[in-house]
Amino acid sequence: MKRLIILTLLMGLVFGIPAHQTAFGVGSTKGKVIRLTAKKFAYSPAEITVKKGEPVVLELTSKDSKHGFNLPDFGVRADVKSGSVSRVSFTPDKVGRFTFACDIYCGSGHEDMSGTLVVTE
Amino acid sequence: MKSIDRRDFMKLAGLGGVVFASGLGFPVFGSKEGKSIVQDDFHFVQFSDTHWGFNGAAINPDAQGTLKKAVAAVNSLEEQPDFVVFTGDLTHTTDDPKMRRERLKGFQDVVSGLRAKTVYFMAGEHDAALDKGEAFQERFGKLNYTFDHKGVHFIVLDNASDPAGLLGETQLKWLQDNLKKRHANAPIVVLTHRPLFDLYPQWDWATRDGASAIKALMPFQNVTVFYGHIHQEHHHMTGHIAHHAAKSLMFPLAAPGAVPKRAPIAWDTNAPYQGLGFRDIEAYIKKSRYEIHELPVVKG
Ligand SMILES: [Cu+2]
Ligand SMILES: [Fe+2]
Question: What distance in angstroms lies between residue A41's CA and the mean position of ligand 2's atoms?
Fold first, then answer.
């Protein structure tokens, strides 16, 4: 997986593919970087605010077991592991409040593990 | 022959059941010679999300009694179902493997009181996602399997024991191989826990590789899916394939996206057991039609 991320990143550099056009938005470093940590059973921060049309890079890491990060409204998802950083990038193209949630069953509080992405004009 | 006629059907509906009809309305089993193979109509009961071991008086003050009452309600049906299926989340999750086994056993003790002796169990993520289905399999056997009943081919898919809620490559291959042996118009019922389509992935109401299963089922003209997980009645079509979600027998959940966070609906003392229930499914094989009667835990 790490190799794939690097490869995508390289492709982005070599072919000059803009951040929001790389496959699934994985691996780009362009855009506003937001760090997000996951632990049983919450994300920190639980709410992120970004601007419409501005590329975002999320850097995800876990403090305990494996979690997921799923933001279906923007087609963004990643596994979130401890000891490594998963990067996802995307450019929000609509305003509103959007739920992201853990999609890897992680224990008794799994169903409460979610957060909100706020996209403003 | 044990078929339900119109009169019995109305009787069932009179119990407070809501009827939802599903089917394509074209006959199956038509042979090339124009003769058809006669099959009996039958009915079966679906229980889902019984969450045995759940504790929370504001959500369900009768956590120990609800399942027992539902078992009694099925036992009191005039026409006993041919079998009962449990579409997952038999128990409420626990991080303790010993407790998980105790809950599975406690659940089984209660449902062994069913008069219908043929019972099929499926796992939900609450039963199986933390140990890849180990405790479930110890007690109930396989996670995915098939069975046949009066000409209907039932396929049980496991999208719960993988913590990522995936069916996985191995199971998808198994499904494809199993389907190869079926005729295009064979009646097929899929039983599973999570929705195979993207119902509301924001709340994890989806199966990440569920589209592959639907794709494999698409060539078959007569496929119906019964599932659970979302703790409410829901009906959806992917092409010609109908998907029917069942209610829970522990707590109802809010409609997809209706509230900011996925959450149980609190118990209403004025309307106890509201939003909970089970269903009786009539299979009219010759008409390729299923009629779903949503039945309450207690007669209102
Ligand atoms: Cu579930
Ligand atoms: Fe459930």
Answer: 18
